[in-house]
Write a structure and sequence with these properties.
alpha+beta; 8-stranded mixed β-sheet; 7-stranded mixed β-sheet; 11 helices; 20 strands; globular; binds flavin-adenine dinucleotide
């Protein structure tokens, strides 16, 4: 098989939120960057859809917010859910000190397409799809590049810095031999679609009943549904049969009775394994991991995308200038970890607390659940909802863009790239 060799300043494995945002920011700051993504496109429906107020603030700082919000999206100003028979509002984003007091629900493939289109306006940006990173290049215990499998042949990339942004099953962190601490997760998620009817209206996001949790994301013409199960419980569920599963869904949301038959077989139900972990050290000489590759996030609170983007902004702020000149020191890579480690640890600690104290209990309950005391306080004193609003919407230690902008290509590209905004993926697959 033919091997193609290229040289760049920074090679990024993985075109998810972390990899694409870092690629965009580095190219915008005049650094040569190559992002390698193993899939042929970004159209996979397993991804979360949440773009948080702090990420929207970053889009504003980049001068992209107005254009971005032209993509089809839903604005969610409050998060609410049904616990047993009680409907409660848990978080209020309207008082946040940001331009956007809401979470924008935008299919993630639209967000990534948007970033890719804008990044391509900078001469230093390159994106290689269908490139599966499967090895690292080493010289004297320093990472000096990577290897990727292409549909026809191999690609060898020599780079001053390799970034692992390849998600929670990161190959890069394994290849680099970085030690990982598994923090455990008591649940997995079943991912399925049900059609949306014109009279559905806006539904509560989450529903909790004895032993079951169900979340519905509005994706325009269909509902993306998440059914939370105990870790490893999928086989037991399958043994009970598809009809029992459909029945459970209707018990959680009776308005779905007219369409649960759309779940025709178990092939329509995808198992997404949840893991929460983090690297002890996010870097080696010549290599850095960010996003889920450095710290896999639980879906609790839907904050993983935001953290991945915050990592990318911090990494670009610290590394862009030195990278323009050449290789970056280990001390600078350590600085990225030091900057992002605290918010990561605190967020994971909160997620684990909720996983163990709420989700584990709910999944083992046999009697109808009642809202816990803290949730009743949120009901009684609405202003308290601003606290979870702040934690979810802004996260801890929100980052701001400090990287400069080199001139984007305008003459060759003509006008800005077209707005694409697709709401239905043409293909789906696991991460
Ligand atoms: C069931 C579930 C639901 C979730 N829902 C939400 C939510 O609603 N909101 C939220 O904020 N977070 C959510 N999360 C967490 C969120 O998905 C992650 O924290 C976030 O996607 C991390 O972004 P990332 O860029 O680091 O990694 P990823 O989004 O995983 O992106 C990694 C990219 O790398 C590519 N890749 C992988 N291996 C290779 C390779 N060897 N070579 C080349 N490319 C490779 C992948 O194809 C992918 O595009 C959820 C997580 C789970 C498990």
């Amino acid at each position: 098989m033919a091997t193609e060799t290229v040289t760049t300043r920074c090679a990024i494995a993985g075109g998810g939120p972390a990899g694409m945002m870092l690629g965009f920011l580095l190219a915008r700051a005049g650094v040569d960057v190559l992002v390698l993504e193993k899939h042929a496109d970004f159209l996979r429906d397993f991804r979360g859809d949440t773009i948080h107020p702090s990420t929207l603030e970053i889009m504003h700082e980049l001068g992209l917010l107005d254009e971005f919000l032209k993509l089809p999206h839903q604005k969610v100003r409050e998060l609410s859910g049904a616990i047993g028979d009680e409907t409660v509002t848990i978080a209020d984003f309207t008082h946040l000190p940001t331009r956007c007091g809401f979470i924008a629900f935008i299919p993630q493939w639209d967000f990534l397409d948007f970033l890719a289109d804008r990044a391509k306006l900078y001469p230093g940006f390159k994106l290689k799809m269908k490139a599966v990173v499967d090895d690292l290049l080493w010289e004297d215990r320093r990472v000096v590049g990577l290897k990727a499998k292409l549909p026809r042949g191999m690609l060898e990339v020599r780079a001053d810095l390799v970034v692992g942004a390849d998600g929670r099953h990161s190959a890069v962190r394994d290849l680099a031999g970085l030690e990982c601490e598994d923090l455990g997760a008591p649940m997995d998620v079943l991912w399925l679609r049900l059609s949306k009817r014109a009279d559905d209206g806006s539904q509560t996001l989450g529903r909790i009943q004895a032993g079951r949790m169900f979340i519905m994301l509005d994706r325009g013409d269909y509902w993306q549904c998440a059914y939370v199960i105990s870790k490893g419980g999928f086989n037991e569920l399958r043994c009970k049969g598809l009809e029992a599963f459909r029945h459970d869904i209707v018990a959680l949301n009776p308005t779905l009775a007219d369409r649960v038959s759309e779940i025709a077989s178990w092939d329509d139900v995808k198992l997404l394994t949840v893991r929460v972990d983090r690297l002890k050290r996010w870097y080696r000489p010549g290599l850095l991991c960010i996003g889920d590759a450095a710290h896999a996030m639980s879906p609790v609170g839907g904050v993983g995308i935001n953290l991945a983007i915050q990592d990318a902004v911090a990494a670009a702020n610290i590394l862009a200038e030195p990278l323009r000149e050449g290789a970056v020191s280990e001390a600078l890579l350590r600085k990225v970890q030091e900057r992002r480690q605290w918010p990561t640890r605190m967020t994971q600690a909160l997620q684990i607390f909720i996983q163990n104290r709420v989700i584990r209990n709910v999944l083992s309950m046999t009697t109808p659940p009642r809202p816990p005391f803290a949730v009743m306080l949120l009901k009684r004193f609405p202003w308290l909802r601003r606290i979870p609003g702040r934690l979810i919407g802004m996260g801890l230690r929100p980052e701001h863009v400090h990287t400069p902008e080199v001139r984007a290509q305008t003459a060759a590209a003509g006008s800005p790239p077209p707005m694409r905004g697709r709401s239905t993926p043409k293909a789906s697959g696991g991460g």
